[in-house]
Amino acid sequence: MTNLITPTRRTLLKGMGAGLLASAALPGHVWGQAAPIKLGFQLHRTGIGAAYGRWYERTAQAALKVVNDAGGINGRPVEIVFEDDATDPKRGAEVVEKLASQAGCDLIFGPLFSHVVIGSAPRAGELKIPYLVCSEGYHVASGMLNRWTMQPGITDVRAQVSSMAPWVTQNLGKKVTMVYPDYAFGYDHRDFFTEAVKAQGGEVIAQIAIPPTETTFTRYLPQIPTETEVLYHVMVGPAVLTFVKELGDFYGSGARPQIFGFIDSLEAVDTASPGLEFLEGTHFWEAHNRVKQADASEAETFYRAAVGVDDNGASVSDAADVATYSHMFSVWETLSVIKKGMEAAGYQGPADRQKFVEAVEAMTTFDAGQDHPQGAKVFNGKTHQVFGHQFISKVEGGKLMRVHQTAIEDGQYADAVDYSTQSF
Amino acid sequence: MESAVTAATLALTAVGLSLVFGVMRVVNVAHGEFFMLGAVSAWFITTWVGGPAWASFLVALAVAPLFVAALAALADRIVLKRLDYEPEATIVATIGLMYIFQQAALSFYGPQAMPVEPPFNFRIQLPWFGYSAYKLSVILFATLVLIGVWLFLTRTKAGLVMRATQVDRETAQAFGIDVDRVYAGVFALGAGLAAIAAVLIVPIQQAHYLMGHDPLLLAFITVIVGGLGSLRGTIIAAVFIGLSDGLIAFFWSPTLAKILATLLVAMVLVFRPQGLFGAKQA
Amino acid sequence: MRIWTLHLFTLAVLAVLLATLPPYHATNLARILVLAVFAIGYNLAFGYTGLLSLGHALFFAAGVYGAALPITYLGLPQLPALVAGLLAGGLVAGVTGLLALRTAGVSFMIVTLMFAQAGYLTLLYFGPVTGGDEGLVLPDAAALLPGLSADVARATIAYALFSAALLSSLALVQSRLGRTLVAIRENEDRSRMLGYNTFAVKLTALVLSGLFSGAAGAAYALLFGYAGASFATIQYSILPMLWVLMGGAGTVLGPLVGTAAMFYLVDIAGSYTTATLLFVGVALVLLILFAPKGILGTIRERWLTWLP
Which residue does chain B place closest to C285, by CA atoms? Predict the structure, then answer.
């Protein structure tokens, strides 16, 4: 009986933010009488997305500080109003309402879970407030949402999945068995990966769907065909650890296929946890390398320090508190896009919301750097979706070490929608 | 085999719920949270104690259920007793407790799932797949605990008092039984059993603040299918339910199997409302 | 007479509130009114007839999808879709009742729970059609009543639906059928001996309850533009129970009071604390300790004994 009630929390950063502004802002920087720009953040503080929500909040706070230290947006200070949506679509729509109508936010960003995004986006469209999601779902680019909803901070799952296929088929094997959750997120993986593998001359020989209420997986594992060369797995939710451990029990020390997984399975989980020794030598998709790589850029180092993540991808204050590193950068980068978009639109207040959306739609590329620590990106103003590099890492000594970086083009696909022709 | 582990922990959780339900007539919605608290406190205890995995695990197995039982007794004294165990009021109250416990876990433990190291990692390796010896020991230990509970209820005075209270509260009171103490004891025992199940399962799964949800639903179903107040029925129902969707999953797609298994169990109740082993006038 | 005056007065106050509240609270009130219809439906089964169900999410979701699917796939206009949702709720409640009402008490609770769980999984199983966990986006609420803005259309529909639900439930509980329901709740065996076909009466109550729930589900989906499987989760079976118990089971206005109180309890909690679950949990425990009959139930017991 999880999240029966959808609790909310509003952290008006007035008190805390004001102190932060006063003490941490560049000395000598005078805000004058400028009213702050208010950004609403739809936060998964409770419910099934809470592990992500905690890091999304930390990333947003860190990015906010950087923006304010650099002079805010259009010469105005920025504050973020956090509101918990309990990772629930009904409460999500209510939170959009609250942030837009009651807190008077200029725009809303931050939600991750697809059902929350899809449940909330209609309300955002109706209220005519920009809604920038950090979700990696294919729902934006598929055309099911509206002109006010955009995803400029993270590559969608369709592109992520498709860009993996060449490397997987060339390096790990051509006969693939997929294990995925039996609902929409899993279907995106099933459909797009199967298609991409085929295009590479490989074949998906078995698709094993796991029902959403399952907490133990051992009974599904015998369905993996013995001729499988690559086992592709993606799971979300707290049961993922069980899944990986049971996979380990299943194969034991005997022969096993190559294993390729999506890091979603292990976000916020230490890869060196007891029972996960089995992952040694297996590969993972990562959108952002959790473990600091030898060639990490200056921007990467800066971002890591600002958010408070150590070189292993855990909180600097608690090594057991592992980040959701492959997703949370989207919050930081979305704030960069917000700043850029508001500056390009000469944003003054809610009357300029439409100009802001048009300004973002006009964007085409983002350069790697402090604003985009995950790397360079290409933004498609028609589908409202961004595309970036993806990484494949191998677990070596319990740590994820990068072995491959995809090109941005590897994930791009034909447009399914042109939001920029829709009316506001 | 997997089903046997599910059945074993389910039986422990469900017997705990069944006791509370049978003796006190309380629908304890917070039962799943006692399960969760068992797992979470096991994580804290093993982390604090340190040392070899088997030693810290044994400490957790001993201490976590006691801690949870004490918490339950406290909740009984502070809240449930004052409601005079009125059925509808206790539902709301235990929903309230559920939120309080969830928030406590979220604030002090956090939103992420964290594992506890199993006391031993021995693996029975067969040519085509391996099997964890720890899971076998879970089944064994759960069985021992269940036998212990059965002996406690049938062979000790305290157990007799509990059963007498279950049959007829007023008469028990008339015979000088301190019903309040019995209730607090039953509530603590029920919560403690859920906590034991959780400590056993946490090296296989992991501790998470929302993990109490599924065990609660399954335990409820088990108790009703087994028949109210029938310990034997509860255990047989746990085995039945543990096996049912595993078997059906063999034939159909897993989600369809879940649907069919759920309806199958519902039909058992529809056509045998008193449960498999309940008396006709349950 | 004073009973009808009270309820009509309540409706008048709601109309004024809808028209004068600031936008945020006005939209919240529209949500509360629709959800209160769900609670009224639950109250008919639980508060008046004594049927403790944990499966009402199924009826609500039947309404959600009964409206959403014809709109999405058959292009049905929205108002007929609302009726389709209402009927779907009643139909599913009828089928559920035919089976589940063979049981009573806690068994009934568990059987309804399991039907709802099977329904939830079925929505996921047919994900390509239902949108599964992600759900479907429905047309703008403005299309409901052409010529009106979305906000006005939403408030109007929510208010009309709530008024119809409140008045019909009031008429119902004061009718012969209503008294029979209470008689069954108090003592089913005696009602049976007095010659009532208690199974038929309970089934009628459950179907009526399903109609209310289905209407609420359909309205919620249409007014807020979203249908998803999450509406079939157990959370949406427990919420109406909580609303009813909070407002006062077996009172006509209790569902409205409980829904509104719970909504704002959650909403306000967020402004003062990050530990919202704790806040809500403690509030529930305190409420049940000091007002065990719910808000209106306690008022009725102490002061207004005539309250229906």
Answer: B93
